[in-house]
Design a protein that fits this description.
The protein has about 230 residues and is α+β, with helices and mostly antiparallel strands. The protein has 2 domains: about 1-105, no CATH class; about 110-200, no CATH class. The chain is built from 6 helices and 4 strands, in the order βββαβααααα. It is globular, with a radius of gyration of 21 Å. The two termini are about 25 Å apart. It binds flavin-adenine dinucleotide. Flavin-adenine dinucleotide (FAD) binds next to helix 4.
Length: about 230
C-alpha cells in the first residue's frame, strides 16, 4: 500500500472514487482519490493530511510476493510494479513514484465472527478496536467499529463514575461490542472470499466480462461528475 502525492493524472475519472478492476489473475488495485474540492479546510487537519493524494494498494496471495515482513519499501514498490506489468502505464508510473515513507505491506487478520468476542470477565482491564476484533480493511469498518467501542466505553466509565460497580459497567460495555464487531468482521470478509474465489482460472473467465461491465458503468458514473 502506498501514496503518490499531487500526481493525479489528467486521464483519471473526475475526483471521486476510482476502482481498478482489471488485472491478470487475482491481482487488483484499489484506488482512492482525494479531490482538492474535498480537501480539509481546517489548517490543523490540512497540515496533517497534506495535499491531494493517490492512495493505492495491491491485494495479493502471499505466495505471489517475495516477502513482506523485512522487505524495504523500495522492494515492495518494485514487487507491486512487477505485479502490475499488464495494467495501464499511468498506474505503474504512479506506483513507482510513491513516497517510500508511506509504503508498507501487511497481512490480513480477522477474528472469528462466530467465536467469542470480548467475553472475558472484566475486572479493571478491558480492550477495544482491533486488539479484540481484528478484521481486514476490505470492509472499511475497522476504525469506525473501534470508535463506536470507544464511545460505549466512555458511557461505561461515566456509569461507573456515577456509582455503578466497575465490573458491571465494563460487562455491559463488553456485551455491546459483539453484535457490532461480528457484523463488521463478516462484511469485511466478504470481499476476501471473492478475492480468494477469483484465484481460480474458471472464476476469472466468468468474472472478467462482469468486471468490464462494472468498470464501464463506473466510468460513466464518475467521469465528469463534480
Ligand atoms: C490499509 C488500511 C486501510 C483501512 N481502511 C479503513 C477504512 O477505510 N475505514 C475504517 O473504518 N477502517 C479502516 N482500516 C482499519 C483501521 O485502520 C483500524 O481498524 C483502526 O485503526 C483500529 O483502531 P485501534 O485503535 O483499535 O488500533 P490502532 O489504530 O492500531 O491503534 C493501536 C495503537 O496502539 C499502539 N501500540 C501497540 N502496541 C503498543 C504498546 N505495547 N505500547 C504502546 N502503544 C502500543 C500502536 O502503535 C497504535 O498506535 C484500515 C486499515 C488499513 C491497514
Amino acid at each position: 500500500m502506498g501514496t503518490a502525492r499531487n500526481r493525479r493524472p489528467a486521464d483519471l475519472p473526475a475526483p471521486g472514487s476510482g476502482l481498478g478492476v482489471r488485472g491478470r489473475r487475482h491481482r487488483r488495485l484499489p484506488l482512492d482519490l482525494q479531490p482538492p474540492s474535498r480537501a480539509a479546510t481546517d489548517p490543523t487537519v490540512a497540515a496533517l493530511t497534506g495535499g491531494p493524494a493517490l492512495i493505492w494498494g495491491t491485494i495479493n496471495r502471499s505466495e505471489s510476493l517475495r516477502g513482506t515482513r523485512h522487505t524495504s519499501a523500495g522492494d515492495l514498490v518494485q514487487q507491486a510494479g512487477a505485479l502490475l506489468t499488464r495494467w495501464s502505464p499511468w498506474l505503474t508510473e504512479h506506483v513507482s513514484a510513491s513516497d517510500l515513507e508511506r509504503v508498507a505491506a501487511f497481512r490480513f487478520r480477522a477474528a472469528n465472527p462466530s467465536g467469542p468476542i470480548a467475553d472475558w470477565t472484566p475486572r479493571s482491564v478491558t480492550g477495544l478496536g482491533d486488539a479484540i476484533h481484528a478484521m481486514p480493511p476490505t470492509g472499511g469498518r475497522g476504525a469506525s467499529t473501534a470508535i463506536c467501542d470507544a464511545a460505549d466505553l466512555v458511557d461505561a466509565i461515566t456509569e461507573h463514575l456515577d456509582g455503578a460497580p466497575l465490573h458491571s459497567a465494563l460487562a455491559r460495555y463488553q456485551r455491546s461490542i459483539s453484535p457490532r464487531a461480528r457484523a463488521a468482521i463478516r462484511e469485511s470478509l466478504g470481499p476476501v472470499r471473492v478475492i480468494n474465489a477469483l484465484r481460480h482460472r474458471p472464476a476469472q473467465a466468468l468474472a472478467r466480462p462482469l468486471l468490464s461491465v462494472a468498470g464501464a458503468w463506473g466510468q460513466r458514473r464518475y467521469r465528469g461528475t463534480p
